[in-house]
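It is time I had a proper look at our fold encoding. Can you supply me with one protein entry, sequence and fold together? It will help me judge whether the discrete encoding reads sensibly. Leave the record below and I will have a look:
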Amino acid sequence: MTRAETTTTTRHYIQHVVPGIRIAGDMEQWNATEPTQGRKIALILHGAMGHKDYLFQKKLAKQLPIDSFRFDFRANHETPGTWNIANFEDDLEDLRIVGEYLTKQLGYRIAMIVAHSRATFVSSYWICNSEWAKSVEAFVNVSGRYRMNLNRVCLVDRTNHELYGAQFKERGFYEWKTRVAGKPVIGIIRPQDVSKFGAWDNSYLWTEFPQHIDVLTIHGFRDDIVPPYDAIIYARVYSSRSPGTHTLHMIEGADHNFIGHFEEVIETVIGWWALRGSGNLKTGIWNTGVKGKL
């Protein structure tokens, strides 16, 4: 099959089990008129208070050599719902519904997952537990958090003052004011949500993450939301498996969202996928042997 020169973008609305909710997502296809049965597809997943076109996601989707699907998790942008900082069960249910739709209804094989921030630990848990994830062969862990209790939600912000303490004492909750897709959004965070967030335990990955999946971890040295050392922990977790490999790429000057570094993220993911396809992946540091900037 000759590949088209550009992808075709199609909007999909997937019916949720929760009444009144449909998951909004965009599919990129290289040959939109060809049957999808048995074809590989990548899932591209956003983090907290993000959306399907956030940061590098949309541009990556249009350059990946396989079809891809990116969507808004519940309560984010175009998918309705009630937002909560620790509603991991909702995210997992959304992944289950999307996975079933892509595989059961469209016939795709979910071969790759590219996840940013919050989506990394949600999707890795999904990989370990979902029948729709059994076809996954490659996982890209971007700005992934391992130590859930070491974060600015549970501890302090970058100015070393209590982030939520004053509002917790005064009102019983904190208002997180931010912008999503250019629109002002307020997320309500309560003390019990903070406790639940910090209680999530990623230690199961040492024994339960599939042995065959190749993993790429990308992290910025200037990440002040997830400590860069968490990338080292993930390297230790994933490098002990076989035949699956682990590749670590640390980006100098990059923050949690890789502002100003989108191209390097995209080039790394595509280059790593191509190297994987040639059978030449080895566990270690990305671009080993290549002299970088000095």
Remarks:
- The first helix runs from residue 57 to 63.
- The chain has two domains: 8-148+202-285, 149-199.
- Confidence is low (pLDDT under 50) at residues 153-161.
- The chain has eight helices and eleven strands.
